[in-house]
Amino acid sequence: MRRLRTVLVWTLVLATSAGTGAWVASRSDPFPPGVTDPGAPAGPPDVASPAPARWRLRLGAQAVHTFRVGGTCRAGWGGDIRLVAVDERRLRGTGRLEPTEALACDFPTAQVQARALVVSVVGSVGGSGVRVRFRLQGVRPSDAQELSGLAASIDRARAVLDPGGRPVRVTLIRPDGRGGGHRSVVSAELRCVTGC
User: Fold this and answer.
1) What are the phi and psi torsion angles at 18 (to 5°)?
2) What H or E segment, with its residue span, contains residue 150?
3) DSSP reduced 3-state for 116
4) Over 80: is that where the pLDDT of 167 sits?
5) What is the Cα gyration radius of the chain?
6) Does a cis peptide bond (omega within 30 degrees of 0) precede residue 141?
7) Contact 31, 37 (CB under 8 A)
8) Which is nearest to 146 in space by CA: 175, 181, 116, 174?
9) What is the rounded average pLDDT for all residues in the chain?
10) b or e along 23-51 (b: 16 or more beta carbons within 10 Å of the residue's beta carbon)?
């Protein structure tokens, strides 16, 4: 009987010790400060940032270059410029304008007319609309001339566009530096594509 009591006491002592050890281990950190857990993730889970807002600026233009010595060259242009939000207020984009009406001059010319204009746009969103500034990046082919005058009149032009998609018409007038001038009537329509 004495032997049975001894076995029971030791069983109770060992069970209590094991339980106490398990309880203490469950509430302690096996990796104290400064020691990295090799099984832990490297950092907080990646949170996908929202895609930037995208806009489409559709442009159409009728351009006329009036020469000092008489006569004109005229052409129609059109194309889309894709704009992407840089932050909450600023937009940037680049696109191509191509002829919608062939060049027509009042006199014969042997100069090669441009087949495309590369235009960049920077804009800022504000209470009155989206203010945009145009910059001519180049003509294609690079050795061509743009005889209707849109390239000269749109370079550094500014406009305020309706972000709701209402077409805005802007008249751009610039002297050609030789006694004549460029006049372009540009129709611009800005629409949100996504995330605006």
Assistant:
1) -65, -45
2) helix 150-154
3) strand
4) yes
5) 36
6) yes
7) yes
8) 116
9) 86
10) eeeeeeeeeeeeeeeeeeeeeeeeeeeee
